[in-house]
Design goal:
This protein has 371 residues and is an alpha+beta fold. The chain is 18% helix and 53% strand.
Length: 371
């Protein structure tokens, strides 16, 4: 019997050594040999060393597994949720601007439309979202960074005094880097995608308005080792917005629910399909935000805001969630108005604090035109 046990023991130890050494060599390049090691990990947890499970193996290499929880959180937030925020902000400012120019709170600082009762509205927003993650998986400290530039354009029409219907399109591109161990070199990755999202706004009263949107699109991730992964996107959201003016001060609030999904097919390396790498990610977010702006005259309104974000993630590929489920997000910015010409613009900065292993910040600029 010893003759049978010894070869098996040698095989398991050998796989463990390969997995460990691969973290600094082939495994960090998302090559075919890396995914071969992952197949061994799926069939025998001892082959996942130095990680305890396939879930930890995936979470430790976000650049090679865009379907993992840590990678998907950054991607959904920088693309789908960025588009949701732009839509909601534009609708809220259009419908709740009766007492003066208005800026929605709570979401990442987004596009702002001009006040007035014009039937048509065109708007655009560009944001740069920077996410930096650092967390421990097994004995290794993982670092994962992603910088996403997101462009959103939209057009809507007032069907009735209290109802607006529109459509938006978004394009995003990101540059990332992954470091699976402290001694491994950083490996570059890229992301890109698009989404089309119709939306609806409904004014409940002078101070309250609802907005809802649904979006469909596609995304693609590329990494070192000629790795590529493509997936479909789906998101939907609903927000209740509040605005009240007290002389030159505007107080706003937002209660919202956002849902984003990414459905990835199997990863390919040099065109060859890597089995068992397909994944479906889901991110649900509740947010509550308040904001105050001061109308200075001459078309200038600085503002400051604070929001609470509560996230819940799930992935068919990885159960480990190293990012943190809640955060405080504060915002600072200034908006500019030309009410005579119906053109507005603005620039703002947001930052998240409170997540255990992630930092996120964004800078956004916007422009809107009513006619």
């Amino acid at each position: 019997m010893a003759n049978h046990v010894f070869p098996r023991l040698v095989a398991v130890v050998s796989l463990g050594v390969l997995a460990f050494s691969g973290n600094a060599t082939a495994s960090s390049t998302c090559s075919s040999s890396f995914y071969t090691q992952y197949q061994s990990c799926l069939s025998n947890s001892l082959a996942c060393s130095p990680y305890a499970s396939p879930q930890e193996y995936v979470a430790a290499h976000p650049g090679c597994f865009p379907g993992g929880s840590s990678a998907s959180q950054a991607q959904v937030s920088g693309s789908s949720f960025q588009q949701v925020g732009a839509i909601s902000s534009s609708l809220s400012s259009r419908m709740l601007g009766g007492a003066g120019p208005t800026q929605v709170s709570g979401a990442p600082v987004q596009g702002m439309a001009a006040g007035g009762k014009n039937a048509w509205n065109l708007w655009g927003n560009v944001a740069v979202n920077d996410t930096r993650q650092s967390f421990a998986i097994g004995p290794n400290l993982i670092k994962n960074d992603l910088n996403v530039t997101n462009l959103v354009v939209g057009a809507d029409y007032a069907l009735a005094p209290g109802m607006v219907l529109g459509v938006s399109g978004a394009f995003d591109r990101g540059e990332g880097s992954m470091q699976p161990t402290a001694v491994a070199p950083r490996e570059a990755s890229t992301t890109k995608g698009y989404a089309i999202a119709p939306y609806l706004g409904y004014q409940l009263s002078k101070e309250l308005a609802l907005d809802a949107s649904i979006g469909f699109g596609s995304g693609k991730n590329s990494g070192s080792g000629n790795m590529e992964s493509e997936g479909d996107r789906l998101f939907y959201a609903a927000n209740l917005n509040y605005s009240r003016w007290v002389r030159n001060l505007q107080f706003t609030g937002k209660l919202g629910y956002l849902h984003g999904e990414e459905d990835f097919g199997n990863t390919k390396v040099n065109g060859a399909t890597m089995n068992n790498t397909a994944a479906k990610n889901k991110l649900d977010r509740w947010l509550f935000g308040v904001q105050a702006g001061y109308w200075m005259g001459d078309g200038v309104q600085p503002y400051a805001g604070l929001s609470y974000l509560a996230d819940r993630r799930s992935s068919s590929q990885a159960g480990t969630d190293p990012v943190g489920k809640s955060a405080w997000q504060w915002a600072l910015g200034v908006n500019f108005f030309s009410l005579a010409s119906g053109v507005t613009g603005g620039i703002g900065y947001t930052r998240e604090d409170g997540r255990s292993n992630q930092k996120n910040s964004a800078v956004a600029a916007n422009i809107g035109m009513r006619f």
